[in-house]
Specification:
- There is one protein chain.
- By secondary structure, the protein is α/β, with parallel strands linked by helices.
- The chain has 2 domains: 23-110 and 124-207 and 331-458, FAD/NAD(P)-binding domain (3-Layer(bba) Sandwich), CATH 3.50.50; 217-323, no CATH class.
- 28% of the residues lie in helices and 17% in strands.
- The chain has 11 helices and 17 strands.
- A hairpin with a 6-residue loop joins strand 14 (364-366) and strand 15.
- Helix 1 (32-43) runs parallel beside helix 3, helix 1 (32-43) packs parallel to helix 10 and helix 10 (420-440) packs across helix 11 (449-458).
- The longest helix has 25 residues, at 287-311.
- It is globular and about 65 Å long.
- The relative contact order is 0.18.
- Bound molecules: flavin-adenine dinucleotide.
- Flavin-adenine dinucleotide is lined by residues 28-34, 51-54, 59-60, 64, 66-70, 150-151, 186-189, 191, 214, 216, 275, 328-330, 404-405, 418-420, 423.
Protein backbone atom coordinates (compact mmCIF):
# COMPACT_ATOMS: atom_id res chain seq x y z
CA UNK A 1 0.00 0.00 0.00
CA UNK A 2 1.40 3.45 -0.93
CA UNK A 3 1.27 6.45 1.39
CA UNK A 4 -1.56 7.86 -0.74
CA UNK A 5 -3.80 4.87 -0.03
CA UNK A 6 -3.00 4.23 3.60
CA UNK A 7 -6.15 4.77 5.65
CA UNK A 8 -5.87 7.45 8.30
CA UNK A 9 -3.16 9.43 6.52
CA UNK A 10 -3.58 12.61 4.46
CA UNK A 11 -2.43 13.31 0.92
CA UNK A 12 -1.66 16.54 -0.91
CA UNK A 13 -3.96 16.99 -3.90
CA UNK A 14 -2.86 19.69 -6.33
CA UNK A 15 -4.68 20.30 -9.63
CA UNK A 16 -4.92 23.12 -12.14
CA UNK A 17 -8.60 23.96 -12.55
CA UNK A 18 -10.45 25.92 -15.24
CA UNK A 19 -11.94 29.20 -13.98
CA UNK A 20 -15.48 30.08 -15.04
CA UNK A 21 -16.87 33.58 -15.69
CA UNK A 22 -17.15 35.51 -12.42
CA UNK A 23 -20.54 36.47 -11.01
CA UNK A 24 -21.50 39.14 -8.50
CA UNK A 25 -23.47 36.83 -6.20
CA UNK A 26 -23.13 33.06 -6.05
CA UNK A 27 -25.87 31.24 -4.17
CA UNK A 28 -24.97 27.71 -3.09
CA UNK A 29 -28.05 25.50 -2.70
CA UNK A 30 -31.49 25.90 -4.26
CA UNK A 31 -33.76 25.14 -1.30
CA UNK A 32 -36.15 27.70 0.25
CA UNK A 33 -33.25 29.91 1.40
CA UNK A 34 -31.37 29.63 -1.89
CA UNK A 35 -34.40 30.35 -4.09
CA UNK A 36 -35.18 33.52 -2.16
CA UNK A 37 -31.52 34.56 -1.95
CA UNK A 38 -31.01 34.25 -5.69
CA UNK A 39 -34.22 36.09 -6.56
CA UNK A 40 -33.46 38.81 -3.99
CA UNK A 41 -29.93 39.30 -5.30
CA UNK A 42 -30.96 39.37 -8.95
CA UNK A 43 -33.81 41.80 -8.29
CA UNK A 44 -31.32 44.07 -6.54
CA UNK A 45 -29.33 44.17 -9.75
CA UNK A 46 -26.60 41.59 -9.16
CA UNK A 47 -25.40 39.11 -11.77
CA UNK A 48 -26.49 36.02 -9.85
CA UNK A 49 -25.73 32.33 -10.23
CA UNK A 50 -27.49 29.63 -8.21
CA UNK A 51 -25.65 26.29 -7.99
CA UNK A 52 -27.64 23.23 -6.94
CA UNK A 53 -26.53 19.61 -6.63
CA UNK A 54 -29.88 18.15 -7.77
CA UNK A 55 -31.59 18.69 -11.14
CA UNK A 56 -34.27 21.01 -9.76
CA UNK A 57 -34.91 23.67 -7.15
CA UNK A 58 -36.68 23.29 -3.84
CA UNK A 59 -34.40 21.38 -1.45
CA UNK A 60 -36.67 19.93 1.19
CA UNK A 61 -39.72 21.47 -0.54
CA UNK A 62 -39.18 19.04 -3.42
CA UNK A 63 -36.36 16.51 -2.95
CA UNK A 64 -37.24 16.07 0.72
CA UNK A 65 -41.01 15.82 0.06
CA UNK A 66 -41.34 17.92 3.23
CA UNK A 67 -44.61 19.69 3.77
CA UNK A 68 -46.74 21.55 4.51
CA UNK A 69 -44.74 24.77 4.88
CA UNK A 70 -45.07 25.49 8.58
CA UNK A 71 -46.60 28.77 9.61
CA UNK A 72 -45.55 32.03 7.98
CA UNK A 73 -47.83 33.83 10.44
CA UNK A 74 -47.53 34.95 14.04
CA UNK A 75 -48.07 32.18 16.59
CA UNK A 76 -51.67 33.28 17.17
CA UNK A 77 -52.31 33.24 13.43
CA UNK A 78 -53.35 36.88 13.32
CA UNK A 79 -50.65 38.37 11.09
CA UNK A 80 -48.62 37.15 8.15
CA UNK A 81 -44.96 37.75 9.02
CA UNK A 82 -43.18 36.07 6.14
CA UNK A 83 -44.07 37.61 2.84
CA UNK A 84 -41.71 38.60 0.01
CA UNK A 85 -40.49 35.76 -2.21
CA UNK A 86 -42.28 33.11 -0.11
CA UNK A 87 -45.69 34.73 -0.48
CA UNK A 88 -45.18 35.38 -4.19
CA UNK A 89 -44.26 31.73 -4.82
CA UNK A 90 -47.28 30.48 -2.89
CA UNK A 91 -49.70 32.89 -4.58
CA UNK A 92 -48.43 31.89 -8.00
CA UNK A 93 -48.83 28.20 -7.17
CA UNK A 94 -52.26 28.84 -5.65
CA UNK A 95 -53.35 30.57 -8.87
CA UNK A 96 -52.63 27.27 -10.64
CA UNK A 97 -54.43 25.21 -7.97
CA UNK A 98 -51.08 23.87 -6.71
CA UNK A 99 -51.13 25.44 -3.23
CA UNK A 100 -53.56 26.96 -0.73
CA UNK A 101 -52.68 30.32 0.74
CA UNK A 102 -51.89 29.92 4.46
CA UNK A 103 -54.52 32.50 5.41
CA UNK A 104 -57.12 29.85 4.47
CA UNK A 105 -55.72 27.02 6.63
CA UNK A 106 -56.78 27.03 10.30
CA UNK A 107 -54.91 25.26 13.11
CA UNK A 108 -56.06 21.73 13.83
CA UNK A 109 -57.15 20.99 10.27
CA UNK A 110 -56.10 17.85 8.42
CA UNK A 111 -53.58 19.96 6.43
CA UNK A 112 -51.87 20.74 9.78
CA UNK A 113 -51.75 17.10 10.87
CA UNK A 114 -54.63 17.92 13.24
CA UNK A 115 -52.14 19.84 15.44
CA UNK A 116 -53.24 23.08 17.08
CA UNK A 117 -50.23 24.67 18.78
CA UNK A 118 -47.84 26.35 16.34
CA UNK A 119 -49.75 24.99 13.36
CA UNK A 120 -52.10 27.83 12.52
CA UNK A 121 -51.86 28.99 8.87
CA UNK A 122 -49.64 26.34 7.33
CA UNK A 123 -49.27 26.07 3.55
CA UNK A 124 -50.23 22.87 1.72
CA UNK A 125 -48.63 22.67 -1.72
CA UNK A 126 -47.73 20.28 -4.51
CA UNK A 127 -43.96 19.67 -4.67
CA UNK A 128 -43.86 19.24 -8.46
CA UNK A 129 -45.30 22.75 -8.86
CA UNK A 130 -42.51 24.23 -6.73
CA UNK A 131 -39.95 23.01 -9.21
CA UNK A 132 -41.42 24.81 -12.21
CA UNK A 133 -42.78 27.93 -10.49
CA UNK A 134 -39.52 28.56 -8.59
CA UNK A 135 -37.59 28.08 -11.84
CA UNK A 136 -39.80 30.59 -13.62
CA UNK A 137 -39.40 33.12 -10.83
CA UNK A 138 -35.61 32.73 -10.86
CA UNK A 139 -35.35 33.03 -14.64
CA UNK A 140 -37.71 36.03 -14.76
CA UNK A 141 -35.53 37.76 -12.15
CA UNK A 142 -32.45 37.08 -14.28
CA UNK A 143 -30.90 34.34 -12.11
CA UNK A 144 -28.62 31.92 -13.94
CA UNK A 145 -29.23 28.34 -12.81
CA UNK A 146 -26.57 25.62 -12.68
CA UNK A 147 -27.86 22.20 -11.69
CA UNK A 148 -26.07 18.87 -11.13
CA UNK A 149 -23.20 20.75 -9.54
CA UNK A 150 -21.89 20.14 -6.03
CA UNK A 151 -19.87 22.82 -4.29
CA UNK A 152 -16.99 20.88 -2.79
CA UNK A 153 -14.53 23.49 -1.63
CA UNK A 154 -13.86 27.19 -1.32
CA UNK A 155 -11.13 29.60 -2.39
CA UNK A 156 -10.10 32.31 0.04
CA UNK A 157 -7.55 35.10 0.07
CA UNK A 158 -5.94 37.11 2.83
CA UNK A 159 -7.07 40.63 1.92
CA UNK A 160 -9.36 41.16 3.72
CA UNK A 161 -8.51 38.23 5.98
CA UNK A 162 -10.25 35.01 4.99
CA UNK A 163 -12.22 36.57 2.14
CA UNK A 164 -14.08 34.05 -0.03
CA UNK A 165 -13.24 34.64 -3.69
CA UNK A 166 -15.00 31.66 -5.20
CA UNK A 167 -15.84 28.00 -4.86
CA UNK A 168 -14.71 24.72 -6.35
CA UNK A 169 -17.62 23.02 -8.11
CA UNK A 170 -17.74 19.32 -8.90
CA UNK A 171 -19.76 18.04 -11.84
CA UNK A 172 -19.64 15.56 -14.67
CA UNK A 173 -17.06 17.77 -16.38
CA UNK A 174 -14.75 17.52 -13.39
CA UNK A 175 -13.71 20.26 -10.99
CA UNK A 176 -14.10 23.96 -11.91
CA UNK A 177 -13.56 27.22 -10.07
CA UNK A 178 -16.50 29.63 -9.89
CA UNK A 179 -15.36 33.11 -8.82
CA UNK A 180 -17.87 35.40 -7.10
CA UNK A 181 -18.06 38.80 -5.44
CA UNK A 182 -20.06 37.41 -2.52
CA UNK A 183 -21.09 33.81 -1.81
CA UNK A 184 -24.39 33.09 -0.04
CA UNK A 185 -24.23 29.69 1.62
CA UNK A 186 -27.75 28.18 1.51
CA UNK A 187 -26.55 24.57 1.62
CA UNK A 188 -28.37 24.00 4.96
CA UNK A 189 -25.17 22.31 6.18
CA UNK A 190 -22.96 25.43 6.00
CA UNK A 191 -20.71 23.56 3.55
CA UNK A 192 -19.05 26.70 2.20
CA UNK A 193 -18.73 28.35 5.59
CA UNK A 194 -17.16 25.27 7.15
CA UNK A 195 -14.68 24.92 4.29
CA UNK A 196 -13.78 28.62 4.60
CA UNK A 197 -12.99 28.27 8.29
CA UNK A 198 -16.10 29.83 9.83
CA UNK A 199 -16.54 28.49 13.37
CA UNK A 200 -19.62 26.32 13.74
CA UNK A 201 -21.53 24.23 16.26
CA UNK A 202 -23.45 21.03 15.74
CA UNK A 203 -26.13 19.44 17.91
CA UNK A 204 -27.26 20.26 21.41
CA UNK A 205 -24.90 21.82 23.91
CA UNK A 206 -24.97 18.91 26.39
CA UNK A 207 -23.81 16.07 24.10
CA UNK A 208 -23.62 17.36 20.50
CA UNK A 209 -26.47 15.09 19.39
CA UNK A 210 -28.64 16.42 16.56
CA UNK A 211 -32.34 15.99 15.90
CA UNK A 212 -33.14 12.68 14.17
CA UNK A 213 -33.57 12.24 10.43
CA UNK A 214 -36.80 11.23 8.73
CA UNK A 215 -37.60 9.83 5.29
CA UNK A 216 -40.80 11.56 4.19
CA UNK A 217 -43.21 9.54 2.05
CA UNK A 218 -46.66 9.90 0.52
CA UNK A 219 -49.47 7.38 0.39
CA UNK A 220 -52.49 7.37 -1.91
CA UNK A 221 -55.83 5.61 -1.68
CA UNK A 222 -56.56 6.93 1.82
CA UNK A 223 -60.17 7.30 2.92
CA UNK A 224 -59.91 11.00 3.87
CA UNK A 225 -63.28 11.21 5.60
CA UNK A 226 -62.62 8.08 7.66
CA UNK A 227 -59.25 9.46 8.86
CA UNK A 228 -60.84 12.76 9.92
CA UNK A 229 -63.66 10.90 11.66
CA UNK A 230 -61.26 8.60 13.51
CA UNK A 231 -58.88 11.34 14.61
CA UNK A 232 -61.66 13.67 15.76
CA UNK A 233 -63.36 10.87 17.70
CA UNK A 234 -60.10 10.16 19.61
CA UNK A 235 -59.32 13.58 21.13
CA UNK A 236 -57.26 12.02 23.94
CA UNK A 237 -54.66 10.71 21.53
CA UNK A 238 -51.60 12.98 21.87
CA UNK A 239 -51.09 12.74 18.11
CA UNK A 240 -53.21 10.96 15.47
CA UNK A 241 -53.47 7.22 16.16
CA UNK A 242 -51.22 7.59 19.26
CA UNK A 243 -53.05 4.88 21.22
CA UNK A 244 -52.71 2.38 18.36
CA UNK A 245 -49.02 3.29 18.00
CA UNK A 246 -48.47 2.95 21.77
CA UNK A 247 -49.99 -0.54 21.79
CA UNK A 248 -47.97 -1.67 18.78
CA UNK A 249 -44.78 -0.15 20.22
CA UNK A 250 -45.32 -2.00 23.51
CA UNK A 251 -45.72 -5.22 21.52
CA UNK A 252 -42.58 -4.48 19.47
CA UNK A 253 -44.51 -4.16 16.21
CA UNK A 254 -44.14 -0.45 15.41
CA UNK A 255 -41.29 0.14 12.93
CA UNK A 256 -40.15 3.57 14.14
CA UNK A 257 -39.51 5.33 17.46
CA UNK A 258 -42.52 7.67 17.34
CA UNK A 259 -45.53 8.39 19.57
CA UNK A 260 -48.09 8.88 16.84
CA UNK A 261 -48.47 9.32 13.11
CA UNK A 262 -47.35 12.62 11.58
CA UNK A 263 -49.82 12.82 8.72
CA UNK A 264 -50.66 15.80 6.55
CA UNK A 265 -53.51 15.89 4.06
CA UNK A 266 -52.47 17.19 0.65
CA UNK A 267 -54.43 18.96 -2.08
CA UNK A 268 -55.00 15.66 -3.88
CA UNK A 269 -57.88 13.50 -2.64
CA UNK A 270 -56.66 10.37 -0.86
CA UNK A 271 -53.00 11.50 -0.82
CA UNK A 272 -51.26 12.22 2.52
CA UNK A 273 -47.69 13.12 3.41
CA UNK A 274 -46.27 11.03 6.23
CA UNK A 275 -43.61 12.29 8.65
CA UNK A 276 -43.21 9.24 10.88
CA UNK A 277 -39.99 7.36 10.14
CA UNK A 278 -37.16 8.29 12.51
CA UNK A 279 -33.46 7.55 12.29
CA UNK A 280 -31.46 8.31 15.43
CA UNK A 281 -27.79 9.05 16.01
CA UNK A 282 -26.64 9.89 12.48
CA UNK A 283 -24.51 12.82 11.34
CA UNK A 284 -25.90 14.56 8.25
CA UNK A 285 -22.44 15.73 7.19
CA UNK A 286 -21.06 12.17 7.01
CA UNK A 287 -21.90 10.33 3.74
CA UNK A 288 -21.63 6.93 5.45
CA UNK A 289 -24.14 7.98 8.08
CA UNK A 290 -26.37 9.45 5.36
CA UNK A 291 -26.22 6.16 3.47
CA UNK A 292 -27.12 4.20 6.58
CA UNK A 293 -29.99 6.63 7.20
CA UNK A 294 -31.31 6.22 3.64
CA UNK A 295 -31.34 2.43 4.04
CA UNK A 296 -32.94 2.50 7.48
CA UNK A 297 -35.47 5.16 6.48
CA UNK A 298 -36.66 3.30 3.40
CA UNK A 299 -36.94 0.06 5.36
CA UNK A 300 -39.06 1.83 7.98
CA UNK A 301 -41.28 3.37 5.30
CA UNK A 302 -42.14 0.02 3.73
CA UNK A 303 -42.90 -1.48 7.14
CA UNK A 304 -44.96 1.57 8.10
CA UNK A 305 -47.11 1.27 4.98
CA UNK A 306 -47.86 -2.37 5.80
CA UNK A 307 -48.68 -1.32 9.37
CA UNK A 308 -50.99 1.45 8.14
CA UNK A 309 -52.84 -0.99 5.86
CA UNK A 310 -53.26 -3.52 8.66
CA UNK A 311 -54.04 -1.32 11.64
CA UNK A 312 -55.00 2.30 10.90
CA UNK A 313 -58.68 3.07 10.23
CA UNK A 314 -58.90 4.95 6.92
CA UNK A 315 -55.58 3.59 5.60
CA UNK A 316 -56.74 0.02 4.83
CA UNK A 317 -56.52 0.49 1.06
CA UNK A 318 -53.59 2.90 0.95
CA UNK A 319 -50.47 2.26 -1.06
CA UNK A 320 -47.04 3.87 -1.19
CA UNK A 321 -46.99 6.71 -3.72
CA UNK A 322 -43.34 7.76 -3.33
CA UNK A 323 -40.46 8.22 -0.92
CA UNK A 324 -38.38 11.38 -0.79
CA UNK A 325 -35.33 11.57 -3.08
CA UNK A 326 -33.28 12.23 0.04
CA UNK A 327 -33.59 11.41 3.70
CA UNK A 328 -34.68 14.51 5.59
CA UNK A 329 -31.92 16.01 7.73
CA UNK A 330 -33.25 18.29 10.46
CA UNK A 331 -29.99 19.55 11.88
CA UNK A 332 -26.27 19.70 11.15
CA UNK A 333 -23.84 22.63 11.39
CA UNK A 334 -24.92 26.02 12.67
CA UNK A 335 -22.43 28.78 11.95
CA UNK A 336 -21.26 31.10 14.66
CA UNK A 337 -22.08 34.57 13.42
CA UNK A 338 -21.95 38.09 14.75
CA UNK A 339 -25.10 37.34 16.75
CA UNK A 340 -26.05 33.85 17.93
CA UNK A 341 -29.84 33.85 18.01
CA UNK A 342 -30.93 32.40 21.36
CA UNK A 343 -34.04 30.94 22.90
CA UNK A 344 -34.22 34.03 25.14
CA UNK A 345 -34.33 36.22 22.01
CA UNK A 346 -37.36 34.25 20.83
CA UNK A 347 -39.05 34.20 24.23
CA UNK A 348 -38.57 37.93 24.89
CA UNK A 349 -39.31 39.01 21.30
CA UNK A 350 -36.04 40.90 21.50
CA UNK A 351 -35.94 43.84 19.11
CA UNK A 352 -32.90 44.11 16.85
CA UNK A 353 -32.04 47.33 15.00
CA UNK A 354 -30.82 45.12 12.15
CA UNK A 355 -34.02 43.03 11.94
CA UNK A 356 -34.32 41.29 8.57
CA UNK A 357 -37.14 38.81 9.26
CA UNK A 358 -39.98 38.09 11.67
CA UNK A 359 -41.27 34.59 12.51
CA UNK A 360 -43.85 32.99 14.76
CA UNK A 361 -43.07 29.28 14.55
CA UNK A 362 -42.27 27.85 18.01
CA UNK A 363 -39.45 25.54 19.14
CA UNK A 364 -39.85 22.12 17.53
CA UNK A 365 -37.18 19.68 18.74
CA UNK A 366 -37.50 16.04 17.76
CA UNK A 367 -35.81 14.02 20.48
CA UNK A 368 -32.29 13.01 19.32
CA UNK A 369 -32.45 9.82 21.42
CA UNK A 370 -36.02 8.55 21.36
CA UNK A 371 -39.66 8.85 20.43
CA UNK A 372 -40.52 12.23 21.97
CA UNK A 373 -40.42 15.86 20.97
CA UNK A 374 -42.18 18.17 18.56
CA UNK A 375 -43.63 21.64 18.95
CA UNK A 376 -43.60 22.47 22.63
CA UNK A 377 -45.53 25.26 24.34
CA UNK A 378 -43.25 25.01 27.38
CA UNK A 379 -40.50 26.89 25.56
CA UNK A 380 -42.78 29.93 25.58
CA UNK A 381 -41.64 31.58 22.37
CA UNK A 382 -43.21 34.94 21.57
CA UNK A 383 -46.10 35.55 19.22
CA UNK A 384 -43.63 37.10 16.77
CA UNK A 385 -39.86 37.24 17.12
CA UNK A 386 -37.13 38.88 15.08
CA UNK A 387 -34.02 37.60 13.32
CA UNK A 388 -31.13 40.06 13.04
CA UNK A 389 -28.91 40.47 9.98
CA UNK A 390 -25.90 39.70 12.19
CA UNK A 391 -27.08 36.06 12.48
CA UNK A 392 -26.37 35.72 8.74
CA UNK A 393 -22.89 37.26 8.98
CA UNK A 394 -20.23 34.69 9.91
CA UNK A 395 -17.34 35.41 12.23
CA UNK A 396 -13.86 35.58 10.75
CA UNK A 397 -14.64 35.17 7.04
CA UNK A 398 -15.47 38.00 4.60
CA UNK A 399 -17.51 38.09 1.37
CA UNK A 400 -19.74 35.32 2.71
CA UNK A 401 -23.30 35.21 4.09
CA UNK A 402 -25.17 32.20 5.44
CA UNK A 403 -28.96 31.75 5.40
CA UNK A 404 -31.59 29.08 6.00
CA UNK A 405 -31.25 26.20 8.41
CA UNK A 406 -27.57 26.74 9.25
CA UNK A 407 -27.65 30.42 10.28
CA UNK A 408 -26.16 31.49 13.58
CA UNK A 409 -28.46 30.22 16.34
CA UNK A 410 -28.44 27.92 19.33
CA UNK A 411 -29.81 24.37 19.06
CA UNK A 412 -33.11 25.57 20.59
CA UNK A 413 -33.54 28.74 18.54
CA UNK A 414 -32.62 26.92 15.33
CA UNK A 415 -35.35 24.38 16.15
CA UNK A 416 -37.83 27.23 15.55
CA UNK A 417 -36.21 29.07 12.65
CA UNK A 418 -35.32 25.89 10.74
CA UNK A 419 -38.69 25.53 9.00
CA UNK A 420 -39.23 26.55 5.40
CA UNK A 421 -40.90 30.00 5.56
CA UNK A 422 -38.16 31.46 7.82
CA UNK A 423 -35.57 29.94 5.46
CA UNK A 424 -37.17 31.90 2.60
CA UNK A 425 -37.08 35.08 4.69
CA UNK A 426 -33.44 34.80 5.78
CA UNK A 427 -32.40 33.74 2.28
CA UNK A 428 -34.17 36.77 0.81
CA UNK A 429 -32.30 39.09 3.19
CA UNK A 430 -28.93 37.46 2.50
CA UNK A 431 -29.41 37.71 -1.26
CA UNK A 432 -30.34 41.38 -1.16
CA UNK A 433 -27.47 42.14 1.25
CA UNK A 434 -24.98 40.30 -0.96
CA UNK A 435 -26.06 42.34 -3.98
CA UNK A 436 -25.79 45.62 -2.04
CA UNK A 437 -22.31 44.66 -0.82
CA UNK A 438 -21.15 44.01 -4.39
CA UNK A 439 -22.70 47.30 -5.60
CA UNK A 440 -20.86 49.25 -2.91
CA UNK A 441 -17.61 47.29 -3.20
CA UNK A 442 -17.71 46.34 0.48
CA UNK A 443 -17.86 43.10 2.44
CA UNK A 444 -21.39 42.07 3.62
CA UNK A 445 -20.39 42.76 7.24
CA UNK A 446 -20.36 46.47 6.37
CA UNK A 447 -23.69 46.65 4.54
CA UNK A 448 -25.76 49.69 5.50
CA UNK A 449 -28.66 48.26 7.51
CA UNK A 450 -31.08 51.05 6.69
CA UNK A 451 -30.49 50.51 2.96
CA UNK A 452 -30.84 46.73 3.34
CA UNK A 453 -34.13 47.09 5.20
CA UNK A 454 -35.48 49.58 2.66
CA UNK A 455 -34.49 47.26 -0.19
CA UNK A 456 -36.22 44.32 1.49
CA UNK A 457 -39.37 46.36 2.07
CA UNK A 458 -39.31 47.39 -1.59
CA UNK A 459 -39.31 43.66 -2.40
CA UNK A 460 -42.40 43.10 -0.19
CA UNK A 461 -40.65 41.64 2.84
CA UNK A 462 -42.20 42.40 6.23
CA UNK A 463 -39.97 43.74 9.01
CA UNK A 464 -42.50 44.62 11.69
CA UNK A 465 -44.93 47.51 12.25
CA UNK A 466 -42.24 50.14 12.89
CA UNK A 467 -40.65 49.57 9.52
CA UNK A 468 -43.87 49.18 7.58
CA UNK A 469 -44.15 52.06 5.11
CA UNK A 470 -47.33 54.06 5.60
CA UNK A 471 -49.74 53.99 2.71
C1 LIG B 1 -37.92 15.37 8.32
C2 LIG B 1 -38.14 16.84 8.27
C3 LIG B 1 -39.40 17.36 8.47
C4 LIG B 1 -39.61 18.71 8.36
N1 LIG B 1 -40.89 19.20 8.44
C5 LIG B 1 -41.12 20.48 8.07
C6 LIG B 1 -42.44 20.91 7.80
O1 LIG B 1 -43.40 20.14 7.92
N2 LIG B 1 -42.62 22.19 7.39
C7 LIG B 1 -41.57 23.07 7.25
O2 LIG B 1 -41.82 24.23 6.90
N3 LIG B 1 -40.31 22.68 7.48
C8 LIG B 1 -40.05 21.40 7.85
N4 LIG B 1 -38.77 20.95 8.00
C9 LIG B 1 -37.64 21.90 7.96
C10 LIG B 1 -37.24 22.36 6.58
O3 LIG B 1 -37.57 21.43 5.59
C11 LIG B 1 -35.76 22.71 6.43
O4 LIG B 1 -35.15 23.10 7.60
C12 LIG B 1 -35.68 23.78 5.34
O5 LIG B 1 -35.96 23.16 4.11
C13 LIG B 1 -34.35 24.49 5.33
O6 LIG B 1 -34.25 25.25 4.14
P1 LIG B 1 -32.82 25.47 3.49
O7 LIG B 1 -33.03 26.22 2.24
O8 LIG B 1 -31.91 26.00 4.52
O9 LIG B 1 -32.27 23.99 3.18
P2 LIG B 1 -32.77 22.80 2.21
O10 LIG B 1 -34.23 22.79 2.02
O11 LIG B 1 -32.16 21.58 2.79
O12 LIG B 1 -32.06 23.15 0.86
C14 LIG B 1 -30.66 23.07 0.71
C15 LIG B 1 -30.35 22.94 -0.77
O13 LIG B 1 -28.95 23.03 -0.98
C16 LIG B 1 -28.50 21.97 -1.83
N5 LIG B 1 -27.11 21.71 -1.45
C17 LIG B 1 -26.68 21.32 -0.23
N6 LIG B 1 -25.34 21.25 -0.21
C18 LIG B 1 -24.93 21.60 -1.44
C19 LIG B 1 -23.64 21.72 -2.02
N7 LIG B 1 -22.53 21.52 -1.31
N8 LIG B 1 -23.57 22.07 -3.33
C20 LIG B 1 -24.68 22.31 -4.07
N9 LIG B 1 -25.94 22.21 -3.54
C21 LIG B 1 -26.05 21.87 -2.25
C22 LIG B 1 -29.46 20.85 -1.54
O14 LIG B 1 -29.50 19.91 -2.59
C23 LIG B 1 -30.78 21.59 -1.34
O15 LIG B 1 -31.46 21.79 -2.55
C24 LIG B 1 -38.52 19.58 8.11
C25 LIG B 1 -37.24 19.06 7.91
C26 LIG B 1 -37.05 17.71 7.98
C27 LIG B 1 -35.69 17.18 7.70
Amino acid sequence: MTAATTPGTSVEFARTLPVLDPVDVLVVGGGPAGIAAAIGAARTGARTLLVERYGYLGGNLTAGLVGPCMTSFSLDGSEQLIRGVFDELIRRMAAEGQARHPSEIPAGSAYCGFIEYGHDKVTPFEPEAVKVVAERMCLEAGVELLFHTFVADVLTEDDPAGAVTGVVCAGKGGLRVQPAGVVVDCSADADVAAAAGVPFEQGRESDGLTQPMTTFFRVRGVDDARVEEYVRSHPDDYRPYASIVARATAEGRFPSPRRGIGLYKTLRPGVWRINTSRILGKDGTDPRDLTAAELAGREQVHRLVRFFQAELPGFERCELLDTAATVGVRETRRIVGEHVLSLADLQQARHFDDVIALCGYPVDIHDPTGAGGGVDEAYGTANAYEIPYRSLVPLRVERLLVAGRCLSATHEAMAATRVMPPAFATGHAAGVAAALAVQDGITPRKVDIDRLQRSLLAQDAYLGPELTPHA
